[in-house]
Amino acid sequence: MIKFSREVSEALASKKPLVALESTIISHGLPRPRNLTVAQEVESIVRATGAVPATIAILDGEIHVGLEADELDRIANEDGVVKASTRDLAILAATKKSAATTVAATAHIAAMAGISVFATGGLGGVHRGDGFDESADLRGLSITPVVIVCAGVKSILNVEATLERLETLAVPVLGFKTNKFPGFYLTESGFEIEHRVESALEIAAIWKQRAAVNTSESAVIVTNPVKVELDRTLHDTLLKNGLAEAEAKHVTGKAVTPFLLEYFHRVSEGKSLDVNVEIIKSNSKLAAEIAIAL
Ligand code: PSU
Ligand code: MN
Hints:
13 strands; alpha/beta; binds manganese (II) ion; eleven-stranded mixed sheet; binds pseudouridine-5'-monophosphate; globular; 12 helices; two-stranded antiparallel ribbon
């Protein structure tokens, strides 16, 4: 079912450390043409740190783990690449369509392929308002064994409710060199994290202990705060107006997150985009260090 890139199949055969990377960021989270450059830079960072990048996507119904240069270009630039969560995988395979994979779908495929470390920007979670919009990322992470490195959950969400759901779903959350839960564009969201870790080795040790206590079915979330956050006043204004515009335009379902990210990037004239790119780069580097430690 899986098509591996040359680099990834060689890495799997020689047991090199691998880092899974998601593709929804590329197709639906970042604007063209910067999306492709960022995707390439992130892969380079993983290689420079000593691991092998495995960007995951669906092309013409086939699951790809690791993309060749022309395939990465398709995900970045082809119109009609949809955003796919885990529930969409069989449908895409049967209809031979192309799609970028979300956190939930990428983690699912990474685990299938035997890759245990995954880097993204910010997780999906419980949305604000009372529309019962909760990302499939949460349930997905509760049933998928991967270490996922992120900058918390996106600040467009209801962070408090998301943290409660992660507790209910028994998904452990670690703070990398912090006790404050990061707020994606912001260094801290205002919520605490109980468990702080200082190194990739410590994370690897926790990962390895899970089998002994029979809790290895879920993901381990590693939160890595961005070093230079978006101006807080600007952030709060963007959030308020972005949410109002999404409501006025009746944006619903899986379009909500891409709409709000695009709103932030457009209205901040790229300031939020720069922070988002920094987040992805820094998370990929840490993920590579964890993969090496494992
Ligand atoms: N992180 C980013 N940009 C993104 C995402 C994460 O910096 O675009 C994507 C991930 O693929 C995540 C998705 O799974 O946003 C969440 O979408 P939703 O809220 O519809 O579940
Ligand atoms: Mn949703």
